[in-house]
Amino acid sequence: MNLLSTINRPYMLSDERSLKRAIDELSRLEPAQALSEAARWIEALLGKPEFDESMRLRTLFALDQAVQRQARACIELYLSALAVRSPARHSLWKCAHSYWSLVFDVYGESLVRVAAHDGERDTELLAELSARAIRAGAQCAKWDAFCHGPITEAVWARLNLAYRLASARGVTRRVLRLRAERATETTVEREYLRAFALHSLGVDQLDAYRLELASRLIQYALPYLELTEAPDAASLHWIDASGTLPPTRLVRNPGNAGLPRFFSGIVAAQPLQDMLEMVVAGEVPAPLVSVGESAVGGSTGKVASVLSHMIRCWSNEPPVRRHRRHAMPGRMLVVEGLLQFARRLAGDPDAPEPRTWQMQDASLHGVGAEAMLDDANELAVGTLVGMHLPDGNCWRVGAVRRLWRSSSKVAHLGYIGRIGVELLGGTPAAAAVDDGSAKVNVIALDPLKRGQPVRVLVPVPGPRSGVPIYLLGGTVPIKLTPLTTLEYGADHEIRMYLYAG
Questions:
Q1: Cβ 416 vs Cβ 372: under 8 Å
Q2: Most buried one in 154, 381, 452, 494, CB count within 10 A?
Q3: Range name among 118-127, 258-267, 383-392 with the lowest pLDDT average
Q4: pLDDT more than 90, % of the chain
């Protein structure tokens, strides 16, 4: 029987030898088991005012650090499980999210104590507490965003509190080494800037894979990012660290903010552009290749799409809506997923019944809607959807571009999801193609015309790329020659082929 299952946890808090043995055993556990066991130890730190605060914090720091490797591994395991729709993804999400929520709660409890007795606090300890609290809060927000929200309301309230306390004591730029055996250094400002930068990228526009890629790319871009006390021409986002709200886009200079901070990523645009050109040429940096090998790793298109997204979000040009939105309430029928929609278009009698979404508005190239989303729903940013709009008599096809679950939960039905869909085509047609090794169901977005390119929606995984495909169904198969891949979605790719005739 090991130490972790026998030792009295509250006693451990004051026994350095037992703590070291526990940390050693934690480091040898599998990822999910390590987080679950560490959570049981950390839970003993909650609501225990009788313990010396400095000792309590150093114990928490040690336990938090002991499972950092396994916490990172849980992300890759989750993404890999997500890619193959494995049931394990739900338990992984709950395990990691519960762990970070608990750690953040304990840090939050300490932050409140510091706020009440700020003058008595050791500044070195305060700096480390603030940095680790911000890091834990950022992890909470990321795991929330993996499931398209909602991000816990307390996250930015506590992130701001941690930054505010460090700022009041003048330690936001104090250099910290969170692991004594490693040379890696950080600061409170660096951790706050990292969380700010990820939020500024619009997490409602990123699926879980791209969100993790963006998180890793921020690490590369961090030296080029700026957090200033006053706005300048390059400032696009801002936050009032004296409040509880998350960062928002800077529309006008705020007047009465207590602790305003302004973010700019414009300097990072050129280094990111240089990396984008490398990736397009086939040179994907090693740290990005390792992100869930079966899900994100190895996909040049996904890395390129994230880099392009970051460059757009941090450019000096604010986004401008090309077409006006018009309120258009009504019910729309929706089929989620390429293969399910292809079956519906082909008239398959066993195709699943469409779901009903509540349409909110529409523009020339998009639709805004709301729908009930529970934990079992597979809808994600990048998912292909077939739509039968209330004002039409035919199916259209689109892709989810924005997705966020609101904090409003309706009984046991789930959360209200706010969804933005980009229209891809108004005359989709189901078809079957053969790439020489397998028959695959696809959707053609354009009518076939000799000598003209045609866009084809193919599933992932689907036909081999870079080889001709043969359109089946007629008296003679029609050869389509590959041109390029236009887009990478969560469950599909849009490829361009030439119908030479």
A1: yes
A2: 381
A3: 118-127
A4: 54
**Listed residue (153, 132, 131) closest to 141, CA to CA:** 153
Tokens read off for 500? 């030479």
Please check whether residue 256 is in contact with residue 292, taking contact to mean a CB–CB distance below 8 angstroms. Answer: no
- 191 with 275: CB under 8 angstroms? no
Of the listed ranges 200-204, 211-215, 291-295, the one predicted with least confidence: 291-295
User: What distance in Å separates the CA atoms of residue 240 and residue 238, rounded to the nearest whole number?
Assistant: 7
CA distance 397 to 387: 6
Q: How far apart are CA 11 and CA 14, in angstroms?
A: 6
The answer for 395, left when phi > 0, alpha when psi is -120 to 50, beta otherwise, is beta
Amino acid occupying residue 35: L
Token pair listed for 42: 């950390």
Q: Report helix, strand or coil for 338.
A: helix
Token pair listed for 188: 């409170």
Cis peptide before 477 (omega within 30 of 0): no
Q: Is 249 helix (H, G, I), strand (E, B) or coil?
A: strand
73: tokens are 């591994």
Distance separating alpha carbons of residues 396 and 385, to the nearest angstrom: 9
DSSP 8-state assignment for residue 350 = T
pLDDT in tens, 131-161: 999 999 999 999 999 999 888 888 999 999 9
**Looking at this protein, which amino acid is placed at residue 222?**
L
d(CA 189, CA 202): 21
* Residue 263 and residue 225 in contact, taking contact as beta carbons nearer than 8 Å: yes
Q: Residue 387 to residues 136, 368, 378, 392: CA-CA distances in angstroms?
A: 40, 12, 17, 10
For residues 339 and 462, give the distance between their C-alpha atoms in angstroms, rounded to a whole number. 11
Which of 75, 96, 426, 112 is closest to 216 using CA atoms?
75
Please give the residue that has the higher pLDDT: either 12 or 481.
481
Three-state DSSP class for residue 248: strand
Say how far apart CA 405 and CA 144 lie, in whole Å. 10
CA–chain centroid gap for 75, Å, is 11
CA distance 337 to 382: 10
- Which helix or strand (DSSP H or E) is residue 414 part of? strand 414-425
Distance CA 462, CA 433 (A): 10
Among 41-45, 84-88, 125-129, 161-165, the minimum mean pLDDT is found in 84-88
> What span, in angstroms and rounded, lies between the C-alpha atoms of 457 and 392?
22
Q: Which residues of 199-213 are buried (b: 16+ CB within 10 A; e: fewer)?
A: bbbbbbbbbbbbbbb
The residue assigned the tokens 């390792």 is 290
Q: Strand, coil or helix: what is 317? A: coil
Domain extents in the chain: 3-200, 326-425, 429-499
Predicted confidence at residue 6, as pLDDT, reads 46
**Superfamily name and number for 326-425:** predicted glycosyltransferase like domains (2.40.10.220)
